[in-house]
Amino acid sequence: MEKKYTDFRNNIYQKISGYVPGEQPESNDWIKINTNENPYPPSPSVVRVLQELAKNPSLLRKYPNPNGEPLRSSLANMYNLKPENFIVTNGSDEALSLIVRIFLDQTRTAAAPEITYSLYQTLVMSVGAKYIHAPMKNYTILNVSPEALEESGADVVFLSNPNAQTGEFIPLNILEKLISKSKKLWVIDEAYNDFVDIKPSSFLHILKEHENVIVVRTFSKSHSMAGMRIGYAASVNPVIMQGFLTGKDSYNEDVVSILTGKASLEDGEYLHKVIQSVQLERTRMMTEFLDRNFLVLPSEANFLLIQPPESKKAHDILLKLKEQKILVRHFNSPLLAKYLRISIGTKEENNELLKAIDFIVSS
Amino acid sequence: MEKKYTDFRNNIYQKISGYVPGEQPESNDWIKINTNENPYPPSPSVVRVLQELAKNPSLLRKYPNPNGEPLRSSLANMYNLKPENFIVTNGSDEALSLIVRIFLDQTRTAAAPEITYSLYQTLVMSVGAKYIHAPMKNYTILNVSPEALEESGADVVFLSNPNAQTGEFIPLNILEKLISKSKKLWVIDEAYNDFVDIKPSSFLHILKEHENVIVVRTFSKSHSMAGMRIGYAASVNPVIMQGFLTGKDSYNEDVVSILTGKASLEDGEYLHKVIQSVQLERTRMMTEFLDRNFLVLPSEANFLLIQPPESKKAHDILLKLKEQKILVRHFNSPLLAKYLRISIGTKEENNELLKAIDFIVSS
What we know:
homodimer; 12 strands; alpha/beta; Aspartate Aminotransferase, domain 1; 12 helices; 363 residues; Aspartate Aminotransferase, domain 2; seven-stranded mixed β-sheet
């Protein structure tokens, strides 16, 4: 007879399920292009910080700076804002989690595009708020409709820019026009923004005039630091920032992440080089897939959403790639069933992928 | 004319204020005995991990293990439990924050001793739950009453063991007797538990039989790793653990913290040495303060709660110590107004403190 355990969870947690991240194999013999990690190592300046800390381990025994300094001030310098406009977080996921807890509740509603980072929905549900899928503008190439977000009637809207899964980038001038007239709180998640070709691409550059915007960013993608859990949120609205300070754990970011994050941020030259390599490979891979009669969505991120030619099923290809130790991503949602999402790897990894796909498609 | 900003915060966040941690001065010329940090550096094995990571920075570009492995399995081995009984968290504060979000809501009530870690109340209020101060057993030496917690009528009770601020340890057999008959969810916060003289001191050793208990622990105190933000929660109730998995961020602990935490955990010899040094200094400092006619609460933690002789005011002494670059802690709550809390420092730091206090008291 099975033991029956008491369910102490609150009413909401008894009903919801968590976000399911992409697979993380333990061994290193995979071509892992399923979770949009950067294929290049972090900046050499990150290594120097680790070496310094190894010489001075007593730094670890003390609590870190509660405001993520000196990383916070470094961010403020870079974007010509004030340190108090930033909160450093344990990955951008923590920033998103704080946002739902501080700005939503069971009486409020959030909206996000029908196709986007599904964590938004998971988080919104976890505080009992209502979640609206704002319809896409176009169901073939899955364009985001910022207007549908504005017209959704939600209190808070989430916009991933470039959009998660599709890679579409909404230019700043279009967003600004809409947001200037909006009464909603806009959360602009710029996880992939550093990979955009058109500059300036970050809303941070025009944040000053918009008190109804929170920009969320991460070091996981462009800075090659997913393992370090470094993110941040920025707003010029002091009431929003007060909310973050009230809601966050006192010491929410560790000292190694703070110091390596600062070092990486200040090595702009290396970052630029890495981003350029990813952009070049992205362009090449788009062409390669188009040559093979795949539908390829125009992407400004470090991944491509691709649809294999009619007869081949996306999920079958994923399984066959897995047999060859290549991990890509497939999403269960009906709108994405025909697609695969592949992260841009190194040139060698990308060539391996193409070779494997050619073999699968021809057999 | 001052600009008026829109308040997007939910109704709860418009009313509450955050936890205020102890002061963290930037410079290193302070004797900092205000936040119960360990005065000794972390284990040499932690340094070796940092050196290894500096040689292999590509590890940082990938997401960390979502379950905090291999630290989680190492914890399971140590306490003869299963890996799935543990969740690794970004400091024990994250574990506590998850607990209020998963097991409380606006219809539920939490209780904690009147004198304890004030973060419990801050967190409970942040989800709109009711908070009950369970009265102390004795208002001179501020004894915790576990019976008052059980009789509080709360759904969830928080017990810091040893208790924060006072250092009192409730023996396991007393707790077990009460908890075996309890229908409540008990959260036993063992932040200071490694410093207890009587062994076994951790509820983890008897956790198997108690599905209504969550044990919360941290690497910030005994492991000298406050800067790394490593904590964990443990329960043998799979429904509780499911709640944690649903509520936590996918990658809530970074790879450097996971790997250095494991290294520290497995260096039991160094840990033992550090704990013994703190215990020895604790005994010496108790005697020193008693010799000076201070009231000293019996403490099993790495701090002492002391009350200066009648004529001297605690807060005045704090200010005068600060002039001499010695930071101690004072709490505003009426029951603690006459006390100072001092962390156990190195022998040299403790001697400096005694010298400074002798000077202040005699002048």
